[in-house]
Hints:
By secondary structure, this protein is an alpha/beta fold. Helices cover about 25% and strands about 25% of the residues. The strands form 2 sheets. The chain has a 6-stranded mixed beta sheet with strand order 2-3-1-4-5-6, with helices on both faces. Strands 7-8 form a two-stranded antiparallel ribbon.
Amino acid sequence: MMASVDVDYIFKVLVIGDSSVGKSNLLLRFSDNIFHETFLPTIGVDFKIKNVTVKDKSVKLNIWDTAGQERFKTITAAYYKGAHGILVVFDITDRESFNNVTNWLNEIKKNAGVNVVKILIGNKSDLESNRKVSIEEAKKMAESQGMVYLETSAKNRINVDESFMELTKSIYEQLPEKDKMSKGEGQKINGTRKPVKSGGCC
């Protein structure tokens, strides 16, 4: 039987973006240090749990990897509800995936609300010679939307952990001061403190 683990917070995180930009590999690299050379499209959604520490607080990340194909949007829209943070991913070698970031941001506004923390991720930085989107252009897009911009390589494990940790820190810093309780007080969600055990879905 899995031992129970007390955590201070549970944050729901989504990874969104066009199909084949590398969302699943980013998540697998972060959660299990795995990288798949062969592209396997996500069907609907995938889910991983990762425990991290931020500002001496223990945080359980429930991370949802959503399918990028248009036909799954009605399924994945439901997963935006209650999200604390979202990584919006595009492929630096695929101009269309960058152009579609605006569509994904509109999906966030429609389904997740305005307070969710967002970070823009330019993935596949190991393919610099095939770059179609400049760093300057991506940074400008991110700044116009109040987002941080980071470039990652799931293949070479560049900035992968940093991206998820930056998102987690930003979520924590955005919490109301009253919710930043002392270590050991248990999780506080919507004003109700309660101990949390690992192994739950959401």
